Structure formats: C-alpha cells, structure tokens
TrEMBL record:
SUPFAM superfamilies: Pentapeptide repeat-like (SSF141571). InterPro entries: 5peptide_repeat, At2g44920-like. This is Pentapeptide repeat-containing protein. Coiled coil: none annotated. It comes from Romeriopsis navalis LEGE 11480.
Amino acid sequence: MIQLTSLKVTISRCLGGLLILTIALCGTLLGFQPSALAQANSINYTNTNLTNRDFSHQDLERGVFVSAEMRDANLEGANLKNSMLTMANLYGANLKGADLSGALADRVTLYQADLSDAILTEALLTNTMIEKTDITGADFTDALVDRYVAKRLCETASGTNSTTGIATRESLGCDD
C-alpha cells in the first residue's frame, strides 16, 4: 500500500513537472522574456545583485528573480508564490517560513540556505542544488525535485510544516 502511494506521488510529480516544463519551453521558443511572463504589477529583479537584502515578510508574489545574486538574503516569511527564481543564487539565504508554492526554481543554488518550515508545494526545483540546507518542516508536496536530490534530502528530512501540517518526509516521498 505504501509503495502504491509513493508511485502515485511520483507519477503526479512527473506529470505536473512535465506540464510546467512544457509551458516554460513553449514560452522560451516563442520568445517570451521572463518579465513578459510576470504580471504587470510584479517586481522584476532579473540579473540584479540582491546580496544581504532584507525581503522578510514581504509580498513578492509572481516576482521575477532570474539570475539574481541573492547570497545571504533574508526572505523569511516572504510570499514568493509563483515567482521565477531560475538560475538565482540563494547561497546562505534565509527562506524560513517562506511560501514558494508554484515557484519556478530551475537551476537555483540553495547551498547552506534555511528552508525550514517553507512551503514549496508544486514548485519546480529541477537541476537545483539543495545542499547543507535546513529543510526541517518544509513541505515539498507535488514539487518536482530531481530524484537524486530528493533521496539526499530524505537523509535529513524531519519535522512537520506549521502551516500545511504535512510532514517533510511524506512530502518528499521518503521511504520509511
């Protein structure tokens, strides 16, 4: 029964990820720029140096942070729903309790970052480096995470997200 549930989660993640990837690739082939994909009232920090910036508890929904340098940025409790973080460098960033639901975080560096209690539901985290990062209580439900990265995250996954009530290990599909 547990293996069947894990299989369903894996298939759901793959299908969701393929849909997001297909939409992103079609947009790229049609020549859309990242800022064109964001709504008019969204912020655009493409190729911007945001090192040590404090964005804690700010509403950054649908923000564009493509190739942004965000080392040691404070994004604690920030609303980053549906944001584009492709190729962003979040080395040492504080994302504790941040909501990254539906975020496009392809090829992002999350080395020594704090993702504790973060919500990453339906986020696209392909080719993303998540190492030496605190994921205690993070919710990865229906997020697309590379299989080998998810396996490595399962080695230290623990806790339950305070907002969604979902256990980190469950959301990653870790074998118990």
